[in-house]
Write a structure and sequence with these properties.
- The protein is globular and about 30 Å long.
- A five-stranded parallel β-sheet has the order 2-1-3-4-5, with helices on both faces.
- The protein has four helices and five strands, in the order βαβαβαββα.
- The longest helix is centred in the first third of the chain and has 13 residues.
- It is α/β, with parallel strands linked by helices and about 130 residues long.
- The termini are far apart.
- β1, α1 and β2 form a beta-alpha-beta unit.
Length: about 130
């Protein structure tokens, strides 16, 4: 079963890089650049994990996290924070906090760890190694 990942970051270039990488290794991604659009995307699609830069231009990280908490009361949806700040005060619990820059491999491992899906069915070579 494919891991479905919602990625939220105001930096469109970085967002496109995240999406390209995670799609390459076999994850299904959706993306948003603001909290409001992320909340709309979240409500319209099923996700297994959310990766969030909380410092959004519309201060929408709180809106998104509230929406997630309200809609997933029985089984909280895992949230990974990826921020340029060393800390960020949030009202809702998160499963992991990373400070940019962070390696794609570390993010990928985090997504697999908290989604509980492992690497089953994932293709590609996230480490960039070649096999001989």
């Amino acid at each position: 079963m494919v891991v479905r990942l919602l990625i939220v970051d105001p930096d469109r270039t970085l967002l496109d890089c995240y999406c390209a990488f995670f799609a390459y290794v076999g994850l299904e991604t959706t993306k948003a650049t603001s909290g409001r659009s992320a909340s709309d995307v979240f409500l319209a699609n099923a996700h297994d994990v959310v990766m969030l830069e909380p410092d959004l231009p519309d201060n929408g990280s709180h809106l998104l996290l509230s929406t997630i908490a309200t809609k997933t009361e029985r089984r909280p949806l895992p949230v990974i924070i990826v921020s340029r700040r060393l800390s960020f005060e949030l009202e809702h619990p998160v499963h992991a906090y990373h400070v940019k820059p962070v390696s794609m491999r570390k993010l990928l491992e985090g997504v697999f760890d908290i989604s509980g899906r492992g690497r089953n069915g994932v293709h590609g070579n996230p480490a960039g190694h070649t096999s001989d």
